[in-house]
Each structure stands twice: as C-alpha cells, then as structure tokens.
Amino acid sequence: MNYIGSKHRLSAWLKQEIKKKIGKDLSNKIFCDIFAGTGAVAKAFKSDVKSIICNDIEYYSYVLNQNSINNHVEIKDANSFIEELNNLTPISDGFIYQNYCLGSGSGRCYFSDENGQKIDTIRAKIEEWHREKIVHDNLYFFLLASLLKSADKIANTTSVYCSFLKELKTVAKQKFILKADKFIYTKNTHRVYNQDANELIKTIQGDILYLDPPYNQRQYGANYHILNTIALHDNFTPKGKTGLREYHHSLYSKKSKVHDNLEDLIKNADFTYIFLSYNSEGFLSKKAIKEILQKHGKYSFAKKEYKKFHTLVTEDNKAEKTYEYLHILEKTR
Questions:
Q1: CA distances (Å), 306 to each of 7, 203, 319, in order?
Q2: How far apart are CA 19 and CA 36, in angstroms?
Q3: Domain residue spans of the chain
Q4: Which of 98, 106, 123, 321 has a 20 to 30 A CA-CA distance from 18?
Q5: Which of 142, 125, 119 is nearest to 72 (CA)?
Q6: What's the DSSP call for residue 5?
Q7: What is residue 134's three-state secondary structure?
C-alpha cells in the first residue's frame, strides 16, 4: 500500500542499524512494533526473531497485521474462498455504494459504482461466514486483509482518503478483483493488538521496542477512514463532503502533547533496546528526543536521507528529500 509514513523503503536500513547495535542473531529476541501501521517493519523482522508483538490503534491496521503478522502457518482452502468471493453477484444496497459512490446519489466518488457494490458484497459475505463459523479467525482476517488491500488498489484517491477525485482515474475504472494477501510462514507464534500504545506498553515486555509514532498533525483515522469503515462493517452517518466517521485523535499528532506522551511511553517500556524513528520535519527536535531518552540509559543516533512522500507527485516535488532519524536507547533505568 502507498501509505503515509510507511517504512517499507527504509526497512533494510532499519534492520542494518538494529543489528549493528544488538548483533546479527536475533533468534531469541522478542520484537515489538507498537505503532505498526501496515506492519512494514514488523514483517521485515518476522523471520529473524523469536516473536513479534504488533500494535496499532487503527482497526484497519489491526486487520492487516492479524494477517501479515499473526498468521504464520498455511491456511487450508484459502484460495477457494477467494474464488467464491470473486464470483458473487454484486448488491446495490451496501454501505460503501450508498455512501461513497456517485451512482447512489451520495455525491462522493471514492470507488466506481460497480467496484463499490463488489466491495459491499464481499464484505457482507466474509462477515456472514465468520458469524456462522464457516471461517475461523485466521481465515477471517486473511480474507478481510485481502479485501482492504484489493480495495485500496482501485480507490479513486491520491493515496489517502481525506478526499476523492472528481473524475474516476484510470486505475479506479478497472474491475475489482479480490487478490489474496500474502504473509510469511514461521514456526513461532506472534501477537497483534489494537490498543493505545501508552496503555499497552504497561502490560508487555520484550527485548527490542521499535517506535514509529505520528510526527505531525496528520491523523491516520481521518486519512484512512474508508479502510476503517470497510474493516469495521458498522453503521453510522458519514459527515461532510468526504463522508468522515468519528476517529481516534492521536496525542502524538498534537504539538502540545507529544513530548509528555513520548516521555511516558519510554518510562514505562520494559524493553532492553528502544529504536525511535522520527522524521526531520516532526514536532519534536533531535535535542528534545535526546533529552528524553538519555534519562533512561545509553543514547546514540543514526540518520538516513530518502525521497519525501507526496500524495500527488509533481515536477516540483518529486525530487524533494527529507531525513529519517533513528534515535537509539539501551535502557538501563
């Protein structure tokens, strides 16, 4: 997924820096990605460590990571369920079509009419199968994650869902096809949570804690509200031109709150090594983060230049660069 703040392109560098600090063999380590997003970093370490703890406050993220992280052995007959879902007859009274497609009269154009109806049809069938215990939890999240990823590929947006395009772009005109989401097989089990990071940190422990909190005012619940709506499969009254739902407001996206929130998280972390990714354009300065971390042990620092993410790439911004800062703490107190 083309996801704001994704560390997919930086995951090899992150792994290099983490192994440089801890050692190449992580096979006896518990690794926690507590602001996981789409789980890019957790996935990068899944085969290397003893166990992954993965968390995000957004429900769509929880669904994606239930499949990519928690699922770790082959799911029998998964492809036959994918095929059956692809062959369903579309319905026209579903929530996505009625509220986020032009043909319903909603005034919103997040999906083509046909694709919105197909998304509704598949989502309803997945829920019916789960309710009637035709599919178990692992298969349920596999199918649901597959739906989220497939729907995102044909969405009529510029990567985020805070707005839609007035006319259907080329990819949004393509026929929706449900494609199986992949996950890595491992011998060890993993845990996935859908909690506030500052609360969860009080109940878990491990060896490596990776932090990638929001660094500016962008709220992920607003930017990806359609994915939450598909994942939750609930009823509400969409608000405004973009059809927003109520969403979680992260304190890490509030300049007046982020310092104390990060300090609280570090204080309560029962992990030996803490690695904090933070963008050079974030609310907190390098100095402020260093002052927080070095209260609790040995501090060090690394940085990486990379191309800046834009929801819409233009000739003016396509070459813009920014820095990813990696703040490193070996916690002793």
A1: 11, 35, 10
A2: 19
A3: 1-69+194-214+250-333
A4: 321
A5: 142
A6: T
A7: coil
Q: Indicate whether 317 pLDDT > 60.
A: no
Task: Give the C-alpha separation, 205 to 31, whole Å.
Answer: 9
Q: d(Cα 25, Cα 2) in Å, to the nearest integer? A: 31
Least confident range from 192-206, 216-230, 252-266, 305-319: namely: 305-319
Distance of CA 255 to the CA centre of its chain: 22
Distance CA 230, CA 152 (A): 11
Supply the pLDDT for residue 312.
Answer: 57
Using alpha carbons, select from 260, 146, 221, 191 the residue that is nearest to residue 34.
191
- Residues 166, 168, 171, CA angle at the centre, nearest 5°? 140
Written out in words, the top-level CATH class of the domain with range 1-69+194-214+250-333 is alpha beta
Task: Express each pLDDT in 54-87 by its tens digit.
Answer: 999 999 999 999 999 999 999 999 999 999 999 9
Torsional class of 189: left (φ above 0), alpha (ψ -120 to 50), beta (otherwise): beta
Strand partners, 279: 324
- The structure tokens listed for 100 are 């986020």
Longest dimension (CA), the chain: 60
Which residue has 């009625």 as its token pair? 98
Give residue for tokens 């070095």. 294
Phi, psi dihedrals of residue 79, rounded to the nearest 5°: -70, -30
**Tokens describing residue 119:** 């998304």
pTM over 0.85: yes
CA proximity to 247, closest of 161, 151, 166:
161
Nearest residue to 200 via CA among 295, 264, 273: 264
Contact 301, 293 (CB under 8 A): no
Task: Say if residues 55 and 34 touch (Cβ distance below 8 Å).
Answer: yes
Q: What is the tens place of the pLDDT at every residue in 20-37?
A: 999 999 999 999 999 999
The single-letter DSSP state of residue 26 is: -
> Which two structure tokens, joined as six digits, stand for 316?
């003016």
- Mean pLDDT taken over the chain: 95
